[in-house]
């Protein structure tokens, strides 16, 4: 049976995290310079589906190897590290 709450939470989380990210900017650039925005849409949609599938498979595998709390802690540390780098990295010249 499908967990509708988890489906909604997953949708909202991914939707909000994808707004304004590099892949969306790449899709904007590609569709702006393309004569076939439909091809850009399908290409980016399939890419997002495959990367999401990979993330689910890796997450499920990690959950079987490690306690869920550890997986969450590793993810939180990874996000904190990325945030730290974004906040304090010097722009390349």
Automatic annotation (TrEMBL):
Query: Which keywords accompany this UniProt record?
Result: Membrane, Transmembrane, Transmembrane helix
Q: Where is it located?
A: Membrane
Q: Report the GO terms under cellular component.
A: membrane
The record's principal subcellular location, in a coarse class, is membrane
| Pfam assignment, any one | GDT1
What the record says about family reads: Belongs to the GDT1 family.
Q: PANTHER family under this entry? A: TRANSMEMBRANE PROTEIN 165, TRANSMEMBRANE PROTEIN HTP-1 RELATED
The protein, known as: GDT1 family protein
């Amino acid at each position: 049976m499908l967990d509708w709450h988890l489906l909604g939470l997953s949708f909202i989380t991914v939707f909000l995290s994808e707004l304004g990210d590099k892949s969306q900017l790449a899709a904007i650039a590609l569709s702006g310079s393309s004569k076939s925005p439909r091809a850009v849409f399908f290409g980016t949609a399939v890419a997002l589906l495959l990367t999401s599938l990979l993330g689910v498979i890796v997450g499920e595998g990690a959950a079987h190897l490690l306690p869920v709390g550890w997986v969450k802690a590793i993810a939180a540390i990874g996000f904190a590290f990325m945030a730290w780098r974004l906040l304090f990295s010097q722009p390349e010249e």
